[in-house]
Amino acid sequence: MSDQVWIRLSEIRDAAALMELDALCWDKHSTPAQIVWNSREHYLQKCPPGSQLVAGIGDDICGYLGFDPPTPLPSNSHVYDLNIAIHPSYQRQGIGRKLMEAVKIMAAEQGICKLSLRVLATNPGAVVFYKSCGFQEQGRLVREFYLDGQYIDDILMWCPIT
């Protein structure tokens, strides 16, 4: 199936599908707070066209990988902070890996030399996936969130781009 996947930069016409994808993918195991978009305009303000790689098969959008410098500081412009979501029906089919490969190529072309992300310790499948994509733990915010009656660590991961 992964040989049928297309990847491109997000476009304004993708907003509704990407908003729906957020509603399907982000839950208490993957994010410390539910992602709620008040409107299409609100979504586009936070996730403007071109700020995500979108993956699809045929006419269906299957996932995305968002990338953004972590701060507006010029001294931090060599880093992309990532977030990724794959539609539940398309998980474990190589789409996330294709998005990771694509962002690494794009980042290298743009002079980015570090990718970083955060993942909740309650999401061990994501940690394993990120490690298989070349990410390593660079730190841990211990007991960073209190969710469902327990404290949860926030794991900081990074991957060098050569």
TrEMBL record:
The keyword Acyltransferase applies. Keywords: Acyltransferase, Transferase. The keyword rRNA-binding does not apply. Transmembrane segments: none annotated. It comes from the Bacteria. Coiled coil: none annotated. SUPFAM superfamilies: Acyl-CoA N-acyltransferases (Nat). CDD domains: NAT_SF. Residues 5-162 form the N-acetyltransferase domain. InterPro entries: Acyl_CoA_acyltransferase (IPR016181), GNAT_dom (IPR000182), YpeA/RimI_acetyltransf (IPR050680). Pfam families: Acetyltransf_1. PANTHER family: ACETYLTRANSFERASE. This is N-acetyltransferase.
